[in-house]
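Figure 6 in text form: structure in, sequence out.
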């Protein structure tokens, strides 16, 4: 059973930093790319960043490119999101996201999420 557990969220002032962690289990972690997505209540999921299976390739949404850093440690089955220069509009629930190809398309797995609030 796939399990993803996010942690590290909290309330910070604008300009500060947070580091989110996601610990994975139930699948061969090193075989898959991993992503971070976020959601504001009442709005859809927004893709934040992705990293390939061995960490050699990183991908970011334009608004996060200069401020966020995604990384992974396959020995610890974990993916991280370092968020710098946080803005109030970064306030959201953040999820790590696994995409698995299926015969009918794709299936996304996410954990319970971790709340990030950026407020003065």
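Output sequence:
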């Amino acid at each position: 059973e796939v399990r993803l557990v996010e942690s590290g969220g909290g309330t910070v002032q604008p300009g500060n930093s947070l580091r989110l962690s996601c610990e994975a289990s139930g699948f061969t972690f090193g075989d898959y790319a991993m992503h971070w997505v976020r959601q504001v209540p009442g709005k859809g999921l927004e893709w934040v960043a992705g990293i390939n299976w061995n960490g050699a390739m990183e991908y970011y949404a334009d608004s996060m490119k200069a401020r966020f850093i995604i990384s992974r440690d396959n020995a610890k089955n974990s993916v991280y999101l370092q968020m710098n220069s946080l803005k109030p509009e970064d306030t959201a629930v953040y999820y790590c996201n696994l995409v698995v190809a299926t015969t009918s398309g794709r299936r996304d797995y996410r954990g319970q999420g971790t709340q990030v609030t950026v407020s003065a």
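Caption detail: The chain has a mean pLDDT of 96.
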